[in-house]
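Q&A log
Question type: sequence-to-structure
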Amino acid sequence: MDYDLQLVKAAKRGDTDAFAALYGTVYQDMYRFALYMLCHPADAEDAVSETVMEAFAGIKKLKTDELFKNWIFKILSNRCKAKLREYCKKNEELTEAVLEDANCREDGPEEAALCRQMFFSLEQEERMIIGLHLFCGYKSREIAEFLHINENTLRSKESRAIRKLGENLRV
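Response status: OK
Response body:
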C-alpha cells in the first residue's frame, strides 16, 4: 500500500489536503493505465480528472479505507470503459498518427508505437486485465473482483492475452 490510512480517514472527513496527498500517490499509475486503455493523452487526462472529481465527491462512501486504491481504479476503469464506448459510437479509427501521438514511453517512437499496436490488438477485456496487472500492479484476486469474474478465469484470460502478445511479436 502506497498511502497512509490516516490520509484516507482525513479525506473522508473532508480534508482536501489529505485527498490531494492520496491522489498524489496514485496519479502516475492512473494516468498510465488510462493512456494505455484509451491511447490518447487528452482522453486519458480527462478520464483521470473525471475520476478524481467523482472520487473526491464520493470518498465518504468508501467502506474499507485499505481499499482506496482499488476503489479509485474501479472508478477509473468505468470511466475508460465509457470513453471506449464513445469511441465505438463515433466510429473513429485509431490511426497510426494517433498511436504515435500517444508516445509516453522512454523507448523510441517506433518501439512505443509497436507496443501500443500490440496492446490494442487485444480485446477490451484483455487490455483491462493486462493494464491493471502490468501498469498498475494489481494482483489477480483484485482484478477478478473489479471485473466480477472468477480468479481462475481471470488467470486463463490473462494467459491467453499474453500468448496473443507473444504471437504478435513473432509475426
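Response note: Residues 16-38 form the longest helix (23 residues).
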